[in-house]
Design brief:
Among the domains are: 103 residues, Thrombin, subunit H (Beta Barrel), CATH 2.40.10.10; 94 residues, Roll (Pdz3 Domain), CATH 2.30.42.10. The protein is 18% helix and 34% strand. The relative contact order is 0.11. The chain is built from 7 helices and 20 strands. The chain is globular and about 95 Å long. The C terminus is likely disordered. The protein has 382 residues and is α+β, with helices and mostly antiparallel strands. The chain has a 6-stranded antiparallel barrel with strand order 1-2-3-6-5-4. A 6-stranded antiparallel β-barrel has the order 7-8-9-12-11-10. Strands 14, 15, 16, 17, 18 and 19 form a 6-stranded antiparallel β-sheet that branches.
Length: 382
């Protein structure tokens, strides 16, 4: 037995010695050397600690630069009022045309050439070019836009493109690490890193339908339409706007969540536009004082501030001053939630509405109409 243990200890000592030599002089021989490479991709480079190279490497090929231009007609002032120029110039302002360029970002969402970007990036453009990651620059056409969410879908004539993968943005949490990819200030494709600072941001006055992801990942002019991705390189949102006093990033950026993006994109591809429900009402949030005056203990609901004469709500005998409490048994938390709930309804369907009218809770039926198109000028966005 003693001889056995002596042999074992000598073998263990020799093995540890060999392991020490390998670790010091030949670390590349270690069998665990590639253990940190992403699963399912044996040829991938091992990820360094605290690195997001895998996420960036996966998403970057799907990101494009969007170059737009449009003709602007202006009046050129006369060159001079001097009589010496009278034989050649009549002294009157001349009309001239110049081209104005704009820069934004976008992300490939299908292998056959569909690209997502912001409405305000391509608004009024008469020529759109898309620069791909592989160096190609192609002309793009607008499939459709949705000014009320600030989204647009483009199409290029190409195939076998690297399409980004959508994540389930409703599972995102405050504190999750995210990367913003785009072309800020035209310096070239750039990746910035931050966290999700807040979810469900609304009442910002940026879009009609707002459900923003707020992030402190640096977003600057030129990032518009580019992706916000998670640490797996999947699309969390489309970067759309920033809060800034200087025009540059101040750590408050807003992205349209992927779940909303997907719904809008599908409708644009199918119909060329987004079809939403509409009731013809103007609503506002219930303040604590208003909720108390209406004897609403939980504060849920939305106050009807105005009714379009002849609209669906007017025909259902809903009045200004009523408080909408639920739509199809879904409780209304505030005016933004009400707007989204009504928009999700199909035009032509009958919808059950519960409301507070003169201290009485009533139920009525409204026939939903189609929301009219609304053109929005989005300014002061990246």
């Amino acid at each position: 037995m003693r001889k056995f243990w002596l042999l074992f200890s000598q073998s263990a000592t020799i093995a540890l010695g060999i392991l020490l030599v390998i670790t010091v002089f030949k670390p590349e021989w270690r069998i665990w050397h590639n253990a940190s490479a992403p699963s399912g991709n044996p040829g991938a480079i091992a990820a360094a600690p605290n690195s997001y190279r895998y996420a960036a490497g996966k998403a970057i090929p799907s990101v494009v630069n969007v170059f737009t231009s449009k003709a602007v007609h202006t009046l050129a002032p006369p060159l001079s009022n001097s009589p010496l120029f009278n034989p050649f110039f009549d002294g009157q302002a001349k009309s001239r045309t110049q081209r104005v360029s704009n820069l934004g970002s976008g992300v490939i969402v299908s292998t056959n050439g569909y690209i997502l970007t912001n409405h305000h990036v391509v608004e009024s453009a008469d020529e759109i070019q898309v620069a791909l990651h592989d160096g190609r620059t192609l002309l793009a056409k607008v499939v459709g836009t949705d000014p009320e969410t600030d989204l647009a879908v483009l199409k290029i004539d190409a195939s076998n493109l690297p399409a980004i993968t959508f994540s389930q943005s409703d599972k995102a949490s405050i504190g999750d690490v995210v990367l913003a990819i785009g072309d800020p200030f035209g310096v070239g494709q750039t990746v910035t890193m931050g966290i999700i600072s807040a979810l469900g941001r609304s009442h910002l006055g940026i879009n009609t339908f707002e459900d923003f992801i707020q992030t402190d990942a640096a977003i600057n002019p030129g990032n518009s339409g580019g992706p916000l991705v998670d640490t797996n390189g999947n699309l969390v949102g489309i970067n759309s706007a920033i809060y800034s006093r200087t025009g540059g990033s101040q750590g408050i950026g807003f992205a349209i969540p992927a779940n909303l993006v997907s719904k809008v994109m599908d409708q644009i591809i199918a119909h060329g536009e987004v079809i939403r429900g509409w009731m013809g009402i103007e609503v506002q949030d219930l303040t604590p004082e208003l909720a108390e005056s209406f004897k609403l203990k939980n504060g849920n609901g939305a106050l009807i501030a105005g009714i379009l004469r002849g609209g669906p709500a007017d025909r259902a005998h809903i009045h200004p001053g009523d408080v909408l409490l639920s739509v199809d048994n879904q409780v209304i938390t505030d005016s933004a939630a009400l707007l989204n709930q009504i928009a999700a309804l199909k035009p032509g369907q009958n919808t059950t509405i519960t409301l507070l009218h003169r201290d009485k809770i009533l139920t009525t039926t409204v026939k939903i109409a189609r929301r009219p198109k609304l053109e929005i000028n989005t300014e002061a966005q990246p």
